[in-house]
Amino acid sequence: MVELETKPDVERCLDRVEAWWHREILDRPPVTLAVRSGREPRKIPTHHATLRDRWMDVEYAIDCAEARIEAAAFVAETFPKYHPNLGPEVCATCYGAELEFSEGTTWSVPILDTIGGALRRQPDLETPLIKGTTGVVVLTSAESKPRPTYGCISCGRCLDACPVFLNPTSLGLLAQAARFEEMEEEYHLADCMLCGSCSYVCPSNIPLSQMFGMAKAQLYRLKTRAA
Question: Under a CB-based contact definition with an 8 Å cutoff, are residues 161 and 167 in contact?
Fold first, then answer.
């Protein structure tokens, strides 16, 4: 185990999390807390001509992450982490989409009119990947063949599969109706980490995770334009 300067109790905290995954409790359940330390992170000088140049500078990104970690407070089972925050649409570059860069994240320029179009589109694996890409899933021809999508049968499998206890059934219906604000305000769309568990277990092959990603992107565009 690597000792972390900003988290000396990391081993005990990880033991609590591991026990929780096995439906066990050690001295207490794991808890994550967002606490402001009151310290401002040190400023990292930038010399980049464009936002794209800044995002693509790996050393600069790591220096900024270290500065934020040094100034943060990690209480209970809250751990230091580096999150590039490239946005959920970074994989869209494999399908021909261009990325737009802002101060805080990125988003793709829309190239689809319907969700069905995403299922029919073939990825271009020659497209260069962004530094934040953590992996590429390679499927056989049989595995990548589009499956027919049917209506929701309210079986509840997606609710059981969701690791953050959301309601993918209701979120999916709202996404189909383009009621994105309601998804965020009443059904906590922001908590969805787009893991794909709901889509994987759905017997009707509804692309729930893809729908949620598109809803998040649309909400971001609406907020950006409003600002």
Answer: no
